[in-house]
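[step 3/7] fold_predict: job queued, chain A
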Amino acid sequence: MQAKKGCTILLVGQITITLILLVISLRQGISLQADMLTALPESNFDKPILHAEKQLFNRASSHVVISFSGSDKEQAYQDFLPKIIKHGWQAQLPDTEKLNQLANFYVDYAGYLLSEQYSTNIADEQRFRQYFTAQMSQFSNPLLSQTFEKDPSLATANFIDELIAKQSNLQTKNGYFFADHVTEKPIVLMLDVGLKEEASQGINFAISTRNTLLALIAANKQAFPEVAIELSGILMHSAENAEQAKWEMSFFGTLSLMATILLVVFVFRSMTPLIWIVLTVSNALLMGFTCLVWVFESVHIITLVFGTTLIGLGVDYCLHVLAHKTFARKTSITNTILFAFLTTVLSYSLLFLTPLAILKQVAVFVCSGLFAALIVSLWLEKTGMLRLKMSGDDIAKVNSTKHLKAVMFIGRKLAVVITGLLVIYSVVKPLSFDDSIAKLNASSAELVAAEQYHRSLLGFQDKSRIFVYANSLQQLLEKEERLAQKIQTHLPNTTITKLSDWLPSAATQKQNITLFEQAHGNKVYLAVQEFLPEYRFNQPAKLLTLEDLVAVTGQQLVNAKYVTYQDFHVSLIEVNSTDTAQLGAIIDDSENVALFDKQRSLSKVLSSFRIELSYWLVAAIVAILAMLYIRFKWHTTVVASYVILASLNAALALACLIQGSLNVFNLLSAILVIGLAVDYLIFYREKEFSDANVIAISLSAASSFFVFGMLAFSQTPAVQSFGITVTIGLLLIYLLAPLVVKGRK
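[step 4/7] structure written:
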């Protein structure tokens, strides 16, 4: 009676607290993420660099690139642009007014700002005369005409010319950008669709924006069928991945739940068990999600796809209670369920120790959900709420497990042979792992192709990124300049873009003004004085500062290259070279400098994590076998060792054959395979071949098979790998687990 009352209080209390916490979370707002890279472990870089890379990534997350190519591209572009502006999105267009504004700003610092080419030309009077004459023959140059009145020395015009030339591969014509270096000369439109930073991070915002853009593009293509339009951007990847994950979560979850419901109705010949199954699954999902949003600041949507596995696991305990209460009413399975729960939670808890954010979230979601499922199952067990009245014929039909046991016996022999052959195969041809992060890219081939195409148009495909940080802005700018000079010494034809292009360090500005004054003292500017007799050099009142630059050009220009982190100043240098080995060697002895190759660094992290995970799996198996030994002694422990290891090896070997190579998610699925194997082993060891036990385990395996079998068809590589391995492992442990009964009465 006390147990019944205690279980009721526990269930009501758990549901009440869960609902209160969930309502609070919903009122505060729940943050969801869809980008796969945000779920991966951080690379082994210094914290200022990791922070800066994340900030720059977030700032670029709302940028979209659209290209138009074909005979009617100009008309298509002109038709498309007003519709973009109508939606409030900011289009980056060639702006003569902004260029004039930049020229009027920089001309006030004439003498402090000298390009490398200009510094060479003022080395002697004759060289400068030739340069001056050549430039004056091109007086139609808008920069030259804009700055000549205040700076006849041409220093400012040359500085801005060289600065602009380094920034982009695109040319301007008739008010738009186009890629002249490509045969089709496409028009390129760059948009910022998330003017509010917090809005651009939302999944719903990304999906809505993508759908709107696709609709606009479809209408444009209908009006101009000869024009090819490509769309890319970080936001497009996030939206596509989110839509796919949402669809899979809904479709797989619904399908697996419906299949489980139909199976239960078929076996129990009653709708009553559905009430308890729905209660169990709903309570598990509710508590799992609530704990998830309270433990983590944001939830990755892929976690919820993985979380559909909770449906298969959550109904297991309820199915065992249903089966034993229906077909073996006097049998208690409380201790068996508790022991199975502990071993499963132990397996999933290991995920929380991994560096993968997704897996930490899966661990919290599944463990808390299983606890909720356990509470409902214990309540059903203790309160005797099940009152199924099955006819004698129905009971006879269900209890006729003779054929099922015969099939399992044959399947068991076949599984032993298959696992043995796969062990031999694994020895002859060891399992191969591919840790490349590119293999986990869930974006469509069309979007990836569009991304690569646009990178080639913008000149990004051949660029390497270097992060630099220092304790002050001036130290940072000086470090940038020294590093750029060092790189160009070894790679003279390399183009380098950096913050100090726009804002030279104070030391460089002082050197420039000294050189400029010396040139005047050495009468280098005779050609200017002959052309403009009243020319006199007046030194600017102060050095150029970051505050001055931001006040005129806005924060956007600086934000693309510069981030602050605590007491550090961090900047991004882009080098037009893909020879990372040579670049790495050049900057190797530089302090607080790192060549940042995100794909390569994440691949290395995944490789290290995979090796580390292998040790964790071994530790988990040893811990579980120790628990089995304490409870069941040697025979069960030895058989369990064989079942677990044979199933794992066979599942990974077959997954390797199907996929071509394994990844870290294949190995992670081994944790779940271990958890399922232990559950089946415990129930077979405790309840042996009783009809109720065979039915319960078969129902449990079938429901899990529905869930994990669905994941094997996922379009997300990580989820698919997980699903394939678990599905194979599940089938094998279902067939092999009864071996633990052999030799017992």
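[step 5/7] annotate
The first strand starts at residue 31 and ends at 33.
The chain has a mean pLDDT of 82.
exit 0
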